[in-house]
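Field log, afternoon session.

UNIT: design team B
ACTIVITY: writing a sequence onto a fixed backbone
BACKBONE:
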């Protein structure tokens, strides 16, 4: 890895944003995706299945596993209840099948070159929706296309859509934060990394659907190819282009005026603590696998002296989130 772009002198620390393409607004360098290890994914899949079978005894979760083995061509799984009930907590609110859930299904269908997503919906909800003639035709079409799986009465559909997305290594469309007791049982840092690479969030603004695809880069401390360090600040962020990062770099001809936070005294003969490949990668899909291997790394900020200085922050609007095909 070349060091020509490292510059000289003290390290400069500033706040910055990362655009939808993974470029730092300050130094212009590219952030990368640290891939998820295949063996970790398989272990995670097995742990979900094990927990689900213990808690879905009456529903026979094994039936769903067998069904999924014969229907493995999906590129996206949709949490049907989450989408259908989105922002429906008003007097005349209900399950929005045609305006919301169907909009998500159709959008995913168009983006994936006419491949249907898999919608997971509880059987009780399905039977209720089928009572409406206007819904029946749509649901029957989804069934005929293999785009709908109804979970048994008494089951918790969370196990089904999570297992399907992990098993098929595909995208998961849900705004569920996945923080309740079910997900606490998984209790793994890997789960958080998996969510980062696979969860697709959505919005409906004036009946217009917006899908927020996973970022093209990993939310970990990382060193860019030309020597800048980038540190994501903690906290939930519904739009990753708005997340604040610390950009740590040495002076050179890069960036534009932003708020500079301080200087870092670099240790003599400083050596980066890791090696990483700088190829870009996308979220795993059911047909392709990423080739990168890597681990989150840490930057020894605690060993350096920080001196506060002032600077001017450039006014700018966040970049539009790229809509991946």
């Amino acid at each position: 890895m070349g060091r020509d772009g490292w510059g000289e002198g003290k390290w400069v620390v500033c706040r910055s944003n990362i655009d939808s393409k993974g470029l730092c607004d300050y130094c212009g360098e590219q952030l990368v995706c640290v891939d998820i290890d295949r063996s970790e994914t398989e272990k995670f899949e097995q742990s979900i299945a094990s927990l689900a079978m213990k808690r879905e005894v009456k529903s026979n979760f094994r039936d769903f596993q067998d069904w999924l083995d014969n229907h493995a061509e999906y590129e996206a799984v949709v949490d049907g209840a989450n989408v259908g009930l989105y922002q429906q907590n008003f007097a005349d609110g209900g399950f929005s099948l045609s305006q919301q859930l169907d909009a998500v299904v159709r959008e995913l269908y168009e983006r994936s070159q006419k491949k249907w997503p898999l919608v997971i919906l509880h059987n009780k909800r399905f039977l209720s929706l089928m009572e409406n003639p206007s819904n029946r035709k749509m649901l029957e079409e989804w069934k005929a296309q293999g785009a709908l799986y109804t979970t048994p009465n008494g089951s918790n559909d969370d196990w089904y859509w999570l297992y399907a997305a992990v098993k098929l290594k595909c995208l998961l469309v849900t705004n569920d934060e996945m923080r309740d007791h079910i997900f606490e049982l998984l209790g793994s840092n890997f789960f958080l990394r998996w969510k980062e690479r696979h969860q697709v969030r959505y919005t409906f603004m004036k009946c217009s659907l917006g899908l927020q695809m996973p970022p093209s880069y990993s939310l970990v401390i990382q060193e860019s190819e030309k020597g800048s360090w980038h540190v994501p600040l903690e906290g939930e962020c519904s739009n990753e282009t708005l997340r604040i990062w610390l950009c740590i770099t040495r002076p050179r001809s890069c960036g534009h005026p932003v708020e500079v936070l301080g200087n870092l005294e670099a240790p003599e003969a400083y050596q980066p603590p890791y090696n990483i490949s700088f190829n870009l990668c996308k979220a795993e899909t059911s047909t392709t696998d990423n080739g990168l291997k890597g681990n989150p790394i840490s930057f020894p900020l605690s060993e350096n002296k920080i001196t506060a200085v002032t600077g001017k922050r450039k006014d700018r609007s966040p970049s539009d989130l790229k809509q991946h095909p």
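LOG NOTE: Residues 275 and 294 are 8 Å apart (CA to CA).
NEXT ACTIVITY: expression trials, pending approval
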